[in-house]
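Tokens as discussed.
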């Protein structure tokens, strides 16, 4: 009996040790977003969780500040360092301000990538763009032209924060390609800080102070929805249109009301999925994400890393009355 107890105790210890080892082997990947409570990022988290389930043994920690500030993200990053996560995938509120915290994370062996909104190269291993920046800029201009008679007229931009990496790049791309849209005239750019109430106020300000503006382009999901609501509430549907980048589930009402004819977006679910796949491959040591390398990304295939450690996922897709109902049920 005594021998049996010893054997059972030994077996229990062995099982406990195996359990601890298995638990220790589990990988923790942090998906850090600009701010919690934004539909685009919640959809990205769905994709991240899908990737984690496919990969197995992966915990995705979905986190971010409550407002779109670099300071808030720095606090989150420091907390993740203390937790000892294996990888951080961040959509940055500021490309430079978060670098010291992310460099600290990398010094601790944490693999860092940026996605959606980039980080300066010294603060990450690679960056995953949702699409080609040039194509996004061109798409926004084409959408503006499509909302105007003969593609001619004045438009304004309602962006996120003044430091949002991706929005600023897309705006610069729009400005650079305006020569290819001679009928378009960019009047001004305003910023809603990716906050619904401020974006709504900024859109209203455009409606009252820039009466010649016929299209508002918002390269941010919060801004395009808020501007659409502002146009509707002001009774200016048919006089002023809103377009840009938005989620089908949030923009279905704007399409139905006529405030928006069409808008574009890549699939944020795929974006979160791809970012998690890349972070996993880096943490496992399966890739170093060097320029020219290709990274396995599950159902998204292989993602090729270009110059500067940047990669692109897919081209923007246009949503309108013909497909909004179908896609609004998905994300």
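Sequence:
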């Amino acid at each position: 009996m005594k021998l049996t107890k010893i054997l059972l105790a030994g077996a229990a210890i062995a099982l406990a040790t195996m359990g601890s080892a298995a638990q220790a082997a589990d990988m923790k990947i942090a998906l850090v977003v600009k701010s919690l409570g934004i539909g685009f990022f919640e959809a990205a988290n769905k994709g991240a969780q899908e990737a984690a389930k496919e990969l197995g043994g992966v915990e995705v920690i979905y986190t971010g500040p409550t407002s779109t500030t670099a300071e808030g993200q720095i606090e989150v990053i420091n907390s993740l360092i203390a937790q000892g996560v294996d990888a951080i995938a961040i959509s940055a509120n500021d490309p430079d301000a978060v670098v010291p915290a992310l460099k600290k994370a990398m010094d601790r062996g944490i693999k860092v990538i940026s996605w959606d909104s980039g980080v300066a190269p010294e603060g990450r291993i690679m960056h995953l763009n949702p699409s080609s920046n040039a194509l996004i800029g061109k798409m926004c201009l084409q959408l503006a032209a499509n909302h105007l008679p003969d593609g001619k007229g004045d438009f304004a931009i309602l962006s996120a924060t003044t430091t949002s990496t991706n929005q600023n790049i897309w705006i610069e791309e729009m400005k650079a390609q305006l020569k290819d849209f001679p009928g378009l005239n960019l009047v001004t750019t305003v910023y809603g800080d990716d906050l619904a109430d401020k974006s709504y106020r900024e859109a209203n300000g455009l409606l009252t102070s820039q009466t010649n503006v016929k299209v508002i382009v918002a390269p941010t999901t919060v801004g395009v929805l808020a501007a659409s609501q502002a146009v509707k509430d002001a009774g200016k549907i048919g006089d002023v249109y809103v377009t840009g980048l938005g989620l089908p589930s949030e923009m279905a009402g704007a399409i139905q009301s006529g405030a928006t004819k069409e808008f574009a977006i890549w699939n944020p679910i795929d974006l979160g999925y791809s970012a998690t796949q890349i972070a996993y491959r880096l943490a496992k040591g399966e890739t170093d994400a060097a320029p020219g390398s290709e990274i396995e990304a599950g159902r998204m295939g292989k993602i090729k890393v270009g110059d500067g450690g940047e990669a692109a996922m897919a081209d923007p897709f246009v949503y309108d009355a013909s497909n909004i109902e179908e896609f609004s049920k998905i994300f």
